[in-house]
């Protein structure tokens, strides 16, 4: 049987038929985006069975390093590339890279489902995550030590939260570092005094609290409307980064992610389309 198959393949060129060539593409980076990337890849490969797309996580920083080192075709990132990273890319490839916004996210703040606290201001979050506030009673909750969960420092979500909430101050040393947003959600769901943060799509089995821009503002939760109009204080873009202008399979895949079908998957996963 194998010999017959081999002979058949050898005969194809003589019949004017070229066997489909496998088109491989690697996508690596943001843990926030890994499920989204996998859903995109699965749907794209159904439509283009000649293509093979491998999607892995590890964090935005890991993906950016892989892009610089030449070990991934596309980097998924939940934060913008730093100037220092673009400089490394430019030094190696004579190009600072190409940034493409492919979806939007409202970085959510999670508390345990039994926690009575329903809203926190950006300032309160800053004080909690820098260790200045350590008890829930100080922010309108029950008497109990706040258990803080964070992401590893290679995470784009970690960087975004540090820049936009902590204003680049250091996280409290009591913060427990978790590998992946799913791990943060799991920890908060089991710890009645826990608090964590991550992508809106992961918010299952916990409470997403409203976030206030300041102590006198109304609390706002992440949603399509609040992310689109910018009223949610922790709205952010989700990115693809490439070493150069996309071509071939990479371009076709990116065009698909930005299409109506691709953006529909963004909504199904739990993030927000850019169009």
Tell me briefly what this model is.
By secondary structure, the chain is α/β, with parallel strands linked by helices.
Structure description:
There is one protein chain. Helix 2 (31-47) packs across helix 10 (260-269). The chain has helices at 2-11, 31-47, 60-69, 83-93, 122-129, 156-164, 181-190, 224-228, 248-257, 260-269, and strands at 23-29, 51-56, 74-77, 98-106, 108-111, 119-121, 147-151, 176-178, 194-198, 207-208, 210-212, 235-242. The chain is an alpha/beta fold. Strand 7 (147-151), helix 6 and strand 8 (176-178) form a beta-alpha-beta unit.
Poorly predicted regions: 1-20
Helix content: 25-40%
Instruction: Supply the CATH class of the largest domain.
Output: Alpha Beta
Q: Could you state the CATH homologous superfamily of the largest domain? A: Periplasmic binding protein-like II
Shape: globular
Report the CATH topology name of the largest domain.
Answer: D-Maltodextrin-Binding Protein, domain 2
CATH architecture annotation of the largest domain: 3-Layer(aba) Sandwich
What gap, in angstroms, lies between the N and C termini? 50 Å
């Amino acid at each position: 049987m194998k010999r017959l198959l081999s002979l058949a393949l050898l005969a194809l060129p003589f019949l004017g038929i070229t066997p489909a060539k496998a088109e491989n593409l690697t996508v690596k980076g943001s843990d926030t985006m890994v499920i989204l990337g996998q859903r995109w890849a699965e749907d794209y490969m159904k439509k283009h069975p000649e293509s093979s797309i491998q999607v892995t996580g590890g964090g935005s920083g890991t993906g950016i390093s892989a892009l610089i080192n030449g070990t991934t075709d596309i980097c998924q990132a939940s934060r913008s590339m730093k100037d220092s990273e673009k400089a490394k890319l430019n030094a190696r490839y004579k190009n600072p890279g190409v940034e493409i916004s492919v979806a939007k996210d409202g970085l959510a703040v999670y508390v345990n489902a039994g926690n009575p606290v329903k809203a926190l201001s950006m300032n309160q979050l800053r004080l909690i995550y820098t260790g200045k506030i350590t008890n829930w009673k100080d922010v309108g909750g029950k008497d109990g030590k706040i258990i803080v969960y964070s992401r590893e420092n290679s995470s784009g979500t970690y960087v975004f939260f540090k820049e936009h909430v902590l204003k680049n101050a250091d996280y409290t040393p009591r913060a427990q570092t978790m590998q992946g947003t799913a791990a943060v959600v799991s920890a908060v769901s089991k710890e009645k005094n826990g608090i964590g943060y991550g992508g809106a799509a992961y918010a299952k089995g916990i409470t997403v609290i409203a976030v206030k821009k300041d102590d006198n503002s109304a609390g706002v939760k992440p949603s399509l409307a609040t992310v689109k109009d910018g009223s949610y204080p922790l709205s952010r873009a989700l990115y693809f980064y490439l070493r150069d202008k996309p071509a071939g399979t990479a371009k076709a895949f990116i065009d698909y992610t930005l299409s109506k079908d691709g953006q529909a998957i963004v909504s199904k996963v739990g993030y927000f389309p850019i169009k």
